[in-house]
Structure formats: C-alpha cells, structure tokens
Amino acid sequence: MSRLENEVLQSYLEDSLHILTASLEQVENGAAPFYRVVALQLRLLLCDSSRRHNRLEDSSLAEQLFPDLALPALTPPHAPLPLAQWLEQPAAPGLSVRQLIRRVCDQDGGAHVDPHPQAGLPDLPPQEIQSAVYHLGQITAQALRQRLG
C-alpha cells in the first residue's frame, strides 16, 4: 500500500471512529435507533467486503491499516483475540459478531431493510440486539483509539 493510500484509509478510519463514538453517545443518551449507525460503522471498520473478479475480498478499514489488530474476547478471561477470530465468536444467540453486524446492516436498517423475518435476525427482543451492538461498538472504539494513540 502506498503512503497516499495509507493516509486516505487512515482518514476514513478516523472519520468512522468519530461517527462511531458520536453514535454510541446518542445511544447512551436514549436514542436507541443509533445502534444501527454503530453497526454500520462496525461493518466499515471490521468486516466490510467487496467482490472483485468473482472473489470476496476484505475491505475493512481496520484490517487494512492494522492487520495485527486484536480485540478483547467477549467472555472471560477477555484475552485479546486476532480480529478474524474475534469476529467469529458468539455475540447473540445463534449469531457470531460478524453475522450480527452484517445482519443489522444488511437487513435491520443499518444500510438496508429486509422486512422478511426469515432473512434477518433471530427472534430476540430488540433491546438484546441493540445492547449487543452497543457493546461491540464500545470495545471497538476503545481498541482503535488506543491504536491511534
């Protein structure tokens, strides 16, 4: 990656982190629907992808800038996990971290809406989904702030 590409990605990551932090504050202040914005920023930062030449390629900002990023596990002893492993741990009943983020973005109004219940999130109380996304956002924001110094 060239220095210019690195600077551009760094700028996007900083903007995304700023939006993530502001959205977490909105949720804290009672604006629960901002969990969808949190999920969208988590997707950009941690698990975004695109198709290139019929191949799925990771295009997440954190992976490109910090390939060695590790985040604390969601369960004790909260030991740091490499990003790929962190995304595959359970975040809600029947969903990994990656699946939860992607489904909120792709079907629950983060970026798209799919009103068909069989396509989306498990039959969980909305507060449980919101809480899980909020918690993932907190962990991610803290880890990325530490990396940026």
Q: What would your notes on this structure say?
A:
The protein has helices spanning 3-28, 35-46, 61-65, 83-88, 97-107, 126-148; strands at 49-52, 55-58, 70-72, 80-82, 90-92, 95-96. The chain has 149 residues and is an alpha+beta fold. Strands 1-2 form a two-stranded antiparallel ribbon. Helix 1 (3-28) packs antiparallel against helix 2 and helix 1 (3-28) crosses helix 6. The radius of gyration is 15 Å and the shape is globular. The mean pLDDT is 91.
> What is the general shape?
globular
Strand order of the largest sheet: 1-2
Largest sheet: 2 strands, antiparallel
Structural class: alpha+beta
The end-to-end distance, rounded to whole angstroms, is: 21 Å
**What is the chain-wise order of helices and strands?**
HHEEHEEHEEHH
Query: How large a portion of the residues is in β-strands, by DSSP E?
Result: 5-15%
| Fraction in helix | 55-70%
List its traits.
6 helices; two-stranded antiparallel ribbon; alpha+beta; 149 residues; two-stranded antiparallel sheet
Gist?
This protein has 149 residues and is an alpha+beta fold. It has helices at residues 3-28, 35-46, 61-65, 83-88, 97-107, 126-148, and strands at 49-52, 55-58, 70-72, 80-82, 90-92, 95-96. 56% of the residues lie in helices and 13% in strands.
